[in-house]
Specification:
The chain is mostly helical and about 500 residues long. It has 21 helices and no strands. The protein has a single domain, classed as Amino acid/polyamine transporter I, CATH 1.20.1740.10. It is about 70% helix and about 0% strand. The longest helix has about 35 residues.
Length: about 500
């Protein structure tokens, strides 16, 4: 997942980009296969596997549906926008709708990370627990402590302006996804091949989730967040030799690889861990632990845990400052944030934004200590993350329709086929996901339905609407620092 829209060089300095019409000529060439692998590495992850493993064979259906109605429209629509307008989602929405809505879009990209990092670090905490004491995975206090310690450590590292974590993050796909994922699936196949029964039924009658009301389908909402971030790689469309032909090929291959990485490990987990015993945060390690104990190679448990943790932390550190960089540059240009939040430290990092975000993250982390079930807390925060991010996608799809109609002759390196149909499909899917997100999952056991709705609705309203509109309403001309933004405000 990516939320960084401001172009920058390897040193983090802002880069002046050529007009869209020239980018296809000036941009360095990239093969469609390379782009497919880049997209796969930025989207695929094992973290969401336990969430879908509770559905057993039906997880195939629950992954395919959002891939068709959300992943594909997002990839193709953002490719057209990126090939015609630089500046990322802010400029797309500002050009297609309005500047205030452009700010709302880029704000939602930033705000979703406030809930994303606690849920990511809750997964890390559960993984670490399997090295220390598996019982800790269900401790809210332990989870809260780990989240706070790791997050503030990440803030300190990021505020130093170091690029030391870049290598770790670049290996994330291999260390934390491909190797563990392949091992999990291979062990699962051998486990079944030796005649052991699957914990989840694997026959045709279980291809679709059992209908027990809306709650039985709610977990599909989390898949929208799993597939988010395609708009990041759309900026590379102009680097392809033949974008109209190669970009769809690249996206379809990436979709296939992402689906394999998501589906096969989820199935492997469902083969060995019964749904009623599966933790949404520790499910991956539950499956590994079960397989390792069965094959008498328990010594591998901490090895796998270290790999998963290293990859997750590398990704967190890489993207910790990314979304705030885009927000900072736009705010300096247009005066959306007060000067206090626009200040940089001695290393050129927007430390005040990171610290302010850290305070909120700490409050969220403490909620893990007060919500009885860690899996329930993880699910609530994952849903809020998705809800806030979906606002950005709703605006992006609307902007794409307006730009195609109002600026049909604007130079584009790529024209998405049936763009209006793609946008309407993406709009309806995103809106449906937001509505379904207010229905507690069948796996949710954290209290009353109204408590759940208040948590999710409150998080969505506060982060996704109230705070950004408060910034817009209190905005002052003196907050604008266009010279600083042009000089390198995204650094």
């Amino acid at each position: 997942m990516s939320t960084m829209d401001v172009p920058a060089d390897e040193g983090g300095r802002s880069v002046t980009r050529a007009p869209a019409a020239q980018q296809a000529v000036a941009a360095p060439r990239m093969t469609w296969l390379t782009l497919a692998l880049m997209t796969t590495s930025s989207v695929a992850s094992l973290r969401a596997a336990p969430t879908m493993a509770v559905y057993g064979l039906a997880c195939v259906f629950l992954y395919l549906v959002p891939a068709i109605v959300f992943l594909l429209p997002t990839a193709l629509v953002s490719a057209e926008l990126a090939s015609g307008w630089t500046g990322g989602v802010y400029n797309w929405v500002a050009q297609g709708l309005s500047k205030p809505l452009g700010f709302l879009a880029v704000w939602c990209q930033f705000a979703m990370t406030i809930f994303y990092y606690p849920s990511l670090l809750a997964y890390v905490a559960s993984t670490i627990a399997y090295v220390i004491d598996p019982a800790l995975a269900n401790s809210g206090v332990y989870t809260a402590i780990v989240i706070m310690v790791l997050y503030w450590t990440g803030v300190w590292v990021s505020s130093r302006g170091t690029g030391a974590v870049a290598g770790l993050a670049s290996w994330g796909l291999v260390i934390g996804t491909l190797i563990p994922g392949t091992l999990l699936v291979v062990l699962g196949l051998v486990f079944l091949g030796q005649g052991n029964p699957s914990a989840a039924p694997m026959n045709a009658s279980h291809l679709f989730p059992a209908w027990t009301g809306l709650a039985s389908l709610v977990l599909i909402v989390n898949n929208f967040l799993s597939y988010s971030g395609m708009e990041m790689n759309a900026v590379h469309v102009s680097s392809l030799k033949d974008p109209p032909k190669e970009f769809p090929k690249s996206m379809f291959l990436a979709m296939g690889l992402v689906l394999l990485i998501f589906i096969l490990p989820a199935l492997a987990i469902s083969w060995v861990v019964p749904a009623d015993q599966l933790s949404l945060t520790a499910g991956v390690m539950q499956a590994f632990d079960a397989f390792f104990q069965y094959f008498d190679i328990g010594w591998l448990t901490p090895v796998i845990a270290v790999g998963l943790v290293a990859a997750s932390l590398g990704g967190m550190l890489t993207w910790l400052a990314g979304p705030s960089k885009g927000l900072l540059l736009i705010s300096r240009q247009e005066g959306y944030l007060p000067p206090f939040l626009q200040k940089l430290n001695a290393h050129g990092v927007q430390q005040n934004i990171l610290v302010t975000q850290g305070v909120v993250t700490t409050v969220i982390a403490l909620m893990y200590a007060f919500i009885p079930n860690v899996s329930s807390a993880y699910w609530i925060f994952s849903v809020i993350t998705t809800q806030v991010y979906l606002i950005m996608y709703l605006l992006m799809f609307l902007a794409a329709i307006r730009l195609r109609r109002n600026q049909p002759d604007h130079p584009r390196g790529y024209h998405a086929p049936a763009l209006v149909t793609l946008c309407v499909t993406g709009l309806l899917a995103s809106a449906a996901a937001m509505v379904i997100g207010f229905v507690p999952s069948s796996q949710f056991s954290g209290g009353s339905v109204w408590s759940y709705v208040l948590f999710v609705g409150g998080g969505l309203l506060l982060l996704g609407l109230i705070i950004p509109f408060a910034f817009l309403k209190s905005r002052k001309p003196s907050w604008r620092q266009p010279e600083a933004a042009a000089k390198g405000g995204a650094a």
